[in-house]
Amino acid sequence: MSDTIKDLASLGKTLGYEGQKQNNGDQFYLPEDYVSHAEKIMKGLLREDRWGNMVFDLTTSQLRNILSLINQVYNEVILIEKEDLPDEIKLRLQYIKVRLLYESGRTRAVKEFVEKAGLIKIIDGINGKKSNLIKFVRFMEAMVAYHKYYGGN
């Protein structure tokens, strides 16, 4: 694990974004029907432009960059046989949170997406469990699919 990733994860903790418990305790944050949840989120991000067309402010590139970060971790996790994630993967999840926060600070559209999708809470809710991480990745894939379906560019 590189020092940069550890430093960024530490920064996220310093800023108060470390494993905050949800109102539902240790339960995972995503609903069982995460595909419908993804559709609601993406529909909520649509807005009408000045010509009356429904458009996203969030670009496909921005969304795919987020998915790429998550898929890098997923590709390692899928090979792990145990349900509990190793510490290195947990640190990488912290790094993803820091990157999400950074990108949210740079771009209003990303910030709106991260907040409406509850990505920080979801990552906190993974709680070091492989099954939760896999469900999170599938949720992200569903949002990318709905973004494309509803005309994202």
Structural class: mainly alpha
Number of strands: 2
Query: Multimeric state of these chains?
Result: single chain
* Overall spatial form: elongated
- Overall pLDDT confidence: 85
Main β-sheet description: 2 strands, antiparallel
The string of secondary-structure elements, in order, is HHEEHHHHH
Beta-strand fraction estimate: under 5%
Question: Could you characterize the architecture of this molecule?
Answer:
The protein has a domain at 40-48 and 56-153. The protein has a two-stranded antiparallel ribbon with strand order 1-2. The chain is built from seven helices and two strands. It is mainly alpha-helical.
Keywords:
single chain, 153 residues, mainly alpha, two-stranded antiparallel ribbon, 2 strands
Q: Quick recap of the structure?
A:
It contains seven helices and two strands. It is mainly α.
Describe the secondary-structure layout:
Elements: H1 3-14, H2 34-45, E1 46-48, E2 54-56, H3 60-77, H4 87-106, H5 108-117, H6 119-125, H7 130-149
Antiparallel strand pairs: 1-2
Helix pairs in contact: 1-4, 2-5, 2-7, 3-4, 3-7, 4-5
